[in-house]
Amino acid sequence: MVIGIDASAILSGKKTGVEVVTTDLIKAILRNDPANTYWLYTPAALPVDMQGEHVVNVVVPGKRFWTQLHLSRAIRKNPPHIFWSPSHILPKLPPQTKGVATIHDLAWYLLPQSYTWRARLMSWLTVRRAIKQGHHLIAVSRHTKKDLKKYFQVPGDNVAVVYHALRSDWSDDNTNPNLGEYLLFVGRIEFRKNILQVLKAFQGFAAAHPQVKLVLAGSPGHGFKQVQKLIKRLQLTDQVLSLSYVPTQQLPGLYRHALGVVYPSLYEGFGLTILEGFAAGVPVMTSNLGGTKEIADGAALLVNPQDIDEMNLGLHRLVDDGELRSSLIAKGKQRLQEFNWDISAQKIINLWKQL
User: What positions does the domain Glycosyltransferase subfamily 4-like N-terminal occupy (predicted)?
Assistant: First the structure.
């Protein structure tokens, strides 16, 4: 059987979230399935180590609307038996090809104010197509599956839950970034990540802990300018440090030297930052709702992301409560063991057999 995969995310220069997990999951699938033949579609050539006896890199040149135009044309010309998109964007598939798409979250639908109208429109069109055209969907958490059933009436039998795991390029590097004492946020700096509320909660915390910084590690997103303005208005310029995108090799050290990870996002389908905090051996504070609550599963300090006072108290506990810190670190290490790329890959391989 020939399985086609949109592997374009592997070529991303600055990998974040979806690009990271897509790369790891594809590698795990290839590692665990010598039976099927895989066609990896990309707009440019993949590294040689991503090719092999049962793996073919199908290069499909093109830039604008690559999936909808160029990839669709290539698949119609030479159809695979199954096509899997690691995102919610499916190309136009011929009748003989069974489509599978991964839905990471429905944040664009549930938090429309966090996105531009163009991003909302594109997400609406592509998710609706994936639901209509796909023979099966993959959700990255039970919460995402629940949202698909609730808001888009997708039958539960048509959705498989497949977790992510810790990024495979996570290293033992312990380089000290020499930032003093700091709390760490890792993720795109955008409205959905609840940065504005985090800053307001941090202001009260900072008054009692003037030596502690808040480090924001992530590329600017929708709402970044408002974040910058609020930092100035709250007079936190000296205590909030924006690093923008942090290269993969520097992330482990940045995590390990933090007092804790702060990730009270308004909505996540999963939350890779939580697993990275667990792996670094630091306590994590995250939201008491959505995918973050599910992934933390009692191994993180949960707070209401819309309650500034509760988040403020959470920051104090994360730093000052030694017993809580030790407990969260131990639970985090244990919880991390429940996420494994090979197990996730096998679930998807089994799905191919059922289609």
Answer: 17-165
The pLDDT of residue 325 is 97
Q: Which amino acid, residue 323?
A: E
Structure tokens at 208: 């009692």
* CA proximity to 31, closest of 10, 46, 14, 52: 52
Q: What does the DSSP 8-state code read for residue 64?
A: T
Domains 1-164+339-352 and 180-335 share a fold: yes
CB 184 within 8 A of CB 261: yes
Phi, psi of 90, rounded to the nearest 5 degrees: -100, 140
> Are the CB atoms for 183 and 315 separated by under 8 Å?
yes
64/119 Cα distance (integer angstroms): 16
Provide the edge-to-edge strand list for the sheet that holds 136-139: 55-59, 37-42, 2-6, 82-85, 98-103, 136-139, 159-161
User: Alpha carbon of 268 to those of 16, 105, 143, 232, 272: distances in Å?
Assistant: 14, 6, 9, 28, 10
The pTM for the full model equals 0.94
Give me the residue label for tokens 């244990």: 334
Burial class (CB in 10 A: 0-12, 13-18, 19+), 275: buried
**Per-residue pLDDT, 19:** 87
Q: Which CATH number does 180-335 carry? A: 3.40.50.2000
The answer to whether 233 and 225 are in contact (CB under 8 A) is no
Report how far residue 181's alpha carbon sits from residue 343's, in angstroms, rounded to the nearest whole number.
Answer: 37
Q: 125, 72, 66, 127: which is closest to 97 by C-alpha?
A: 72
Ordered by start, the domain boundaries in the chain are 1-164+339-352, 180-335
The CATH topology of domain 1-164+339-352 is Rossmann fold (3.40.50)
Q: What is the pLDDT of residue 203?
A: 95
Per-residue pLDDT at 223: 87
Q: What's the order of all strands across the beta sheet hosting 260-263?
A: 240-242, 212-217, 181-186, 260-263, 284-287, 301-303
Pair of tokens at residue 57: 């890199």
Whole-number pLDDT of residue 178: 92
Segments in the chain below pLDDT 50: none
